[in-house]
Amino acid sequence: MITPEKEEQEKEKEYIVKSENEEEQEEVEIIKSENEEREKVENVEPEKEKCKESAFSKTPIPKELAGQPSRRYIEDYDLRSLLGKGGFGTVYLAKHKATGEKVAVKALHKQGIKKERAAKSVILEKNILKLAKRNQNPFLVGLFASFRSEHHVCLVTDYCAGGDLSTYLKENPLPRERVVFYSGCVVLGLQFLHQHNIIHRDIKPENILLDSDGYAKITDYGVAKRTLSYGNTTWSKGGTCYYMAPEMIKEIGYTKSVDWWAFGIMIYRMLTAKYPFNGSDRAILKHNITENQPQFPDTMSEDSIDIIERLLNKNPEMRLGSTDEDAEDVKKCSFYKDIDFDALAKKQIEPPYIPKKKTTGCFRRIFCRRKKRIAMTEEGCEEPLNLFPEVFKNFECSLFLPSDI
Ligand SMILES: Nc1ncnc2c1ncn2[C@@H]1O[C@H](COP(=O)(O)OP(=O)(O)OP(=O)(O)O)[C@@H](O)[C@H]1O
Ligand SMILES: [Mg+2]
């Protein structure tokens, strides 16, 4: 049996290129957003920030940001503790020295970005973080800054003090009220992403964070996919095996409805602390996902079974959320009968649980206990790498909102 721990180690991030065409489409989208950035950095003034210019931070500062506290250099942050280590990055809790703001620094080692394709995924991740922040969507983690250091590409995001949902799930299911509330937040976050033609592709409790007020936010757009239009079909594989929809496994093309499948697996897991599909190896797991039906515990309520069964419909066209109504259909389920989504969107519903002030559940305690200054790992680095200069041309960003300036 593949345990959740083993899954953590084996986290599968598959990038199988199925269609040259699709690659080209993605490039068009990225070039589009790069151009948008270029427009914004027109009329730049000479660099006025305090820190020494790094060889990897050459993007000029837009005029309106001159005089703002620097965010674009690793020296601008005090790294405090380790928040998480994923398949791609190491995430640190850090304090922005100039403002005292707590942030999360996701450091991606440049050694792991050897292919242009991986480089473009990082750009997309940054662009989605930026989109989320600009729109101030309460259910998506947003960008604070992005920059390159000698050996890393860093994405700095708003810190979520409650940690990720998997830390609350280790042995026990979550109370139903919390599952309804957190999944309701995810419905609103997914709605926003889908409206912007973004398929997240890695919805799972590890990628859902709780902010200090107790609201849930989607994070980790590292395997997200941008499509050309709302219902577009796409082929390349990406995500975590336990949460992969049957049509993705079968490689027959898929749409944004793979996110609703993963969302169904996540609700099942939160309510039971188990996976609906398991297997002693990856092939058996994939067989179970494509061929078998989930079993529900006797104690599970009818409306929980109803929403999970409809989300785990193996036919993507019949799956809940697959129509143009997308999230609106999901909101109508009786599972959400007690949630007023308009009030939730305005954060007017009181969260069922407020994270404790000193949450260390998600920290590696060893770092907290020793109060040791930590530094980013630099194993394997001899020479600083200058990655795909064209792809990373406008990467450096300090995202101040108009209200900050
Ligand atoms: N903004 C944040 N606030 C608090 N914790 C965070 C934040 N961002 C990330 N984390 C923690 O770090 C973990 C890894 O982050 P993230 O998922 O972005 O990295 P990843 O390398 O893409 O992960 P994976 O490959 O496991 O999906 C999260 O599961 C969470 O526990
Ligand atoms: Mg993750």
UniProtKB/TrEMBL annotation:
Keyword Disulfide bond: no
GO cellular component term, pick one: nucleus
Segments of skewed composition (Basic and acidic residues): 1-20, 29-55
Domain Protein kinase: 77-336
Keywords: ATP-binding, Kinase, Nucleotide-binding, Phosphoprotein, Serine/threonine-protein kinase, Transferase
Family to which the UniProt record says this protein belongs: Belongs to the protein kinase superfamily.
The name this protein goes by in its record: Serine/threonine-protein kinase N1
Organism, as annotated: Xenopus laevis (African clawed frog)
Underlying gene: LOC108695747
